[in-house]
Automatic annotation (TrEMBL):
Protein name (record): 5-hydroxyisourate hydrolase
Organism: Stenomitos frigidus ULC18
Gene3D superfamilies reported for this sequence: Transthyretin/hydroxyisourate hydrolase domain
UniProt cross-references to NCBIfam families, sorted A to Z: hdxy_isourate
Cited SUPFAM superfamilies: Transthyretin (synonym: prealbumin)
Keyword Repressor listed: no
Annotated keywords: Hydrolase, Purine metabolism
Pfam families associated with the record: Transthyretin
Phylogenetic lineage: Bacteria, Bacillati, Cyanobacteriota, Cyanophyceae, Leptolyngbyales
Catalysis: reaction(s): 5-hydroxyisourate + H2O = 5-hydroxy-2-oxo-4-ureido-2,5-dihydro-1H-imidazole-5-carboxylate + H(+)
Amino acid sequence: MSGKLTTHVLDTAQGCPAAGLSIALWSIASPSGDKTLLKTVLTNADGRTDSPLLTDEALQVGVYELVFSVGAYFAQHLPDLPNPPFLNEIPIQFGIADPKAHYHVPLLASPWSYSTYRGS
């Protein structure tokens, strides 16, 4: 069994999946903390990416960061929000300890709050 990294985003302000939200995936080197951009993707109509962010040998032990561009997303869907937005880019840094496991990092977001967890 090979591991994979997946995500999805739910718009809790409107009660729907966050379609068309940009997500950047970074690898973070240890111990320097240098970041390498691995990819940028958009969520689909279900608030998910069309394929896993990392699979097989691309999923390595290490530290990663997902950066969710919620400011641009909410500006498109809720145009009466203040500018600049309260939340713009939401970074979630996490570790991959077992590259054979499934790591799912969902984001539940509104223009004013967010939460995450390790999903299944």
